[in-house]
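Lecture notes, continued. The same structure-token format from the folding unit now serves as the input rather than the output. Read the line below as a description of shape only.
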């Protein structure tokens, strides 16, 4: 359906595209998006420092779906979402003349990531997963305990440097980890002050 990648495209241009493609009046659009999350993915990526300068970005390779079980979990999740969207209770929230595959095509056309899009994505759930994969902005796992930091969150092999943020988590707590990380930071800070100042 769409062989377009929306890079450097304004929100108004995207809205105009959808209005013309689906012949819709989006002036009073009230919409939402259902996302799925692959909990505890088995695929691992790499994070590599390119220099010692803190001003240079590291090289990050996500390796999404490197383990085929993650792709299978994504497909199964999408199959469930399709069933939910096609269910009778949700029909009153959908345009009856807009099939679920067109809704998938609409989402696949959004600028969710910089990956190329494939025309067949709405009809091939494996390809749809690959084309629309994204991280929901809660990066974690880059400084794992017992791999990069010790159990006191001290960076191994580096003096006087501790890391206490979500990069130390092996698994995401499931929702926004802000409260979890604030609690952990406060707890570790209390231990630090008690050790050095009391």
């Amino acid at each position: 359906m769409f062989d377009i990648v929306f890079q450097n495209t304004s929100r108004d241009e995207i809205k105009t595209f959808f209005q013309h493609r689906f012949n819709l009046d989006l002036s009073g659009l009230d919409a939402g998006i259902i996302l799925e999350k692959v909990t505890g993915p088995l695929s691992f990526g790499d994070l590599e420092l390119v220099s010692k300068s803190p001003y240079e970005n590291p090289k990050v390779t996500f390796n999404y779906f490197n383990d085929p079980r993650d792709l299978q979990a994504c497909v199964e999740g999408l199959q469930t979402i399709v069933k939910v969207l096609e269910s009778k209770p949700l029909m009153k929230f959908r345009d009856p003349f807009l099939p679920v595959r067109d809704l998938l095509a609409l989402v696949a056309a959004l600028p969710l990531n910089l990956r190329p899009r494939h025309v067949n994505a709405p009809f091939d759930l494996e390809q749809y997963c690959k084309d629309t994969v994204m991280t929901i902005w809660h990066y974690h796992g880059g400084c794992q305990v017992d791999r990069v930091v010790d159990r006191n969150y001290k960076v191994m092999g580096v003096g006087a440097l501790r890391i206490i943020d979500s990069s130390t988590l092996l698994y995401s707590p499931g929702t926004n980890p802000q409260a979890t990380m604030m609690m952990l930071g406060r707890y570790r800070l209390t231990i630090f002050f008690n050790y050095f100042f009391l």
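Point for the exam: The beta strands are 46-48, 59-61.
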